[in-house]
Amino acid sequence: MKIVNKKQIINQLDTIALYLEIKGENPFKVAAYHRAGLALENDPRSMAGMSDLSKIKGIGKSTAQVIEELLARGESSVLLALEKDIPHSLLDLLRLPGLGGKKIGKLYRELGVVDRDTLKDACEQGKVSQLAGFGKKTEEHLLQSLNEQRQRPKELPIPYMIDLADQIERVLRSVEMVNRFSCAGSLRRAKEKMKDLDFVIETADPKAVARQLLEKLPMHEIVGQGDAKMTVLLGDPNQVSVDFRFATQDIYASMLLHFTGSKEHNVLLRRLAKERNEKISEYGIEREDGSMRTFQNEADIYHYFGLNFIPPQAREGAFELERAEKGPLNLIKLSDIKGDLHMHSTWSDGANTIAEMAEAMRSKGYAYACLTDHSQSLRVANGLSPERLLEQNEKVKKMNQHYDDFTLFSGIEMDILPDGSLDYSDDVLSRLDFVIASIHFSFSQDKNQIMKRLENACRNPYVRLIAHPTGRMLGKRHGYAVDVKRLIELAKETGTALELNASRFRLDLSSEWLGRVQEAGVKIAINTDSHSLDMMDDMKLGVETAIRAGIKPHNVINTWPIDQLMIFLKNKKVI
DNA sequence: GCCGTTTTCGGCCCGACTGTTTTCAGTCG
């Protein structure tokens, strides 16, 4: 098999690292292979665009050679040699809690363990507890994990984790002795997938808080419990692992920064501290004279290093850190949003009336919102016939007379039909304030046909936005066969905006693509696609996703004042 | 294995927790 794909190369580098770990190699050598993979991942260029690999920080002579060999031959002699040396099935054992490279290596060398079955046999025969460094408890724990039939998925999608985190936060609010708390980790950074949840809790009495949490939360198992932290598996269907970290008032900010990560971001901050002969940890910054400096908030910690504040969602690689040295990042924030341009009412498949939706948007402090019910072909969603649409249009115009601090635009989320035609005539569209086009059926068409549909929509003189451009549902379906690069070109050419659909179930486009949209100079709209009042709150997640992509407010049309937005809505390049 | 203008050798982030020990190694994040 010939490998050309960056993701596959990163996988191979990680596999080499796992083999080395089991071989008991120097942990820094193991980390070096992981880091080389990370360096590739964080580099925006494609493999073809990278000329001198060893020039990239984190990739040296050896790892560059491995990558070049993978590119040229599709396989790596380093990896092949390791595969000969060590049974591949051992890698799977790294997923068992409590087993790392050293212990697996020992089980393999001394007991001939090669996979879950042979490990189970060895445990049942009591051989494992005989090994030096192993004992009865380790053997029991291993047997227990091996007997737990269903393997927990490695990572879970953000909508699932948000629900769970909401549940935990409700409990935390009812726990005595909790002064404040925050989620941390991947959820605070708004990653699309994550493997666990983290919470930082300020309290003077960790024991009392831990006890109450154990009483009030549905619990599967306590994995670990000490004075500073508690790790549990929840009783939800996926038995999600949750870390609770306890902090006093003075170290809360440092604790939050540390456990928000990312790991990579922490390493970079530690290096920065080290350069100044200081040490940064979850307890603060230890200065050269041994004194400990604590901070009121995260921004103060960044300022201490001469950096501008970096929002949690932007704390992934080296890029943001370098930028934060030079000046404020000026990334979008929730308060920049002046309106929501995609929502549904009871006229199609929404749960609330137009008036209820409009009032809720207004009470959020928005200056405007746009009603965009479904179009006629989407019968399952009670899509609007041209007559009903025009009737609604009149109604919205009348409703607007009641407001002097808010504007409700009259729009539509129009289906792009399987043959590429659109669901209303230009004559109907010309009477609306805002036309969104999107795909809701015939998902399985090939890329050519899907792109033909999207191209037709972009070239229509009234379509101003393509909604949820890939159609993905997080954790459920991949979406249709979109050539996103080509779509961005089409959007650029025709002056059409692309949506970041902020619904927790979609986040479409993803932060990866959004960065490219901004680079191309294409405008973005962050919309919740609300079908009920409570869904409007997903705007926060939408903005967080945009921050991950490094989006600046001026590239997002619904941060604009209404006059500027109206100019955009009315003027389209006609190609 | 990678890195470097105090370093081409000797560091590499570092603390919590568990289990197996009786002072610490391994794992985890």
TrEMBL record:
One Gene Ontology MF term: exonuclease activity
Helix-hairpin-helix DNA-binding motif class domain ranges (all copies): 51-70, 91-110, 126-145
Enzyme Commission (EC) number: 2.7.7.7, 4.2.99.18
Alphabetized UniProt keyword annotations: DNA damage, DNA repair, DNA replication, DNA synthesis, DNA-directed DNA polymerase, Exonuclease, Hydrolase, Methylation, Nuclease, Nucleotidyltransferase, Sodium, Transferase, Ubl conjugation
InterPro entries: DNA-dir_DNA_pol_X, DNA_pol_lamdba_lyase_dom_sf, DNA_Pol_thumb_sf, DNA_pol_X_beta-like, HHH_MUS81, Hlx-hairpin-Hlx_DNA-bd_motif, NT_sf, PHP_dom
Record PANTHER family: PHOSPHATASE YCDX-RELATED
Domain DNA-directed DNA polymerase X, first and last residues per copy: 3-316
Cofactor(s) needed: Mg(2+)
Subcellular location(s) per record: Cytoplasm
Catalysed reactions, semicolon-separated: a 5'-end 2'-deoxyribose-2'-deoxyribonucleotide-DNA = (2E,4S)-4-hydroxypenten-2-al-5-phosphate + a 5'-end 5'-phospho-2'-deoxyribonucleoside-DNA + H(+); DNA(n) + a 2'-deoxyribonucleoside 5'-triphosphate = DNA(n+1) + diphosphate; 2'-deoxyribonucleotide-(2'-deoxyribose 5'-phosphate)-2'-deoxyribonucleotide-DNA = a 3'-end 2'-deoxyribonucleotide-(2,3-dehydro-2,3-deoxyribose 5'-phosphate)-DNA + a 5'-end 5'-phospho-2'-deoxyribonucleoside-DNA + H(+)
Function: Repair polymerase that plays a key role in base-excision repair. During this process, the damaged base is excised by specific DNA glycosylases, the DNA backbone is nicked at the abasic site by an apurinic/apyrimidic (AP) endonuclease, and POLB removes 5'-deoxyribose-phosphate from the preincised AP site acting as a 5'-deoxyribose-phosphate lyase (5'-dRP lyase); through its DNA polymerase activity, it adds one nucleotide to the 3' end of the arising single-nucleotide gap.
Domain of life: Bacteria
Main location: cytoplasm
DNA repair recorded as keyword: yes
Sequence ranges assigned to domain Polymerase/histidinol phosphatase N-terminal in this UniProt record: 339-418
Protein name: DNA polymerase beta
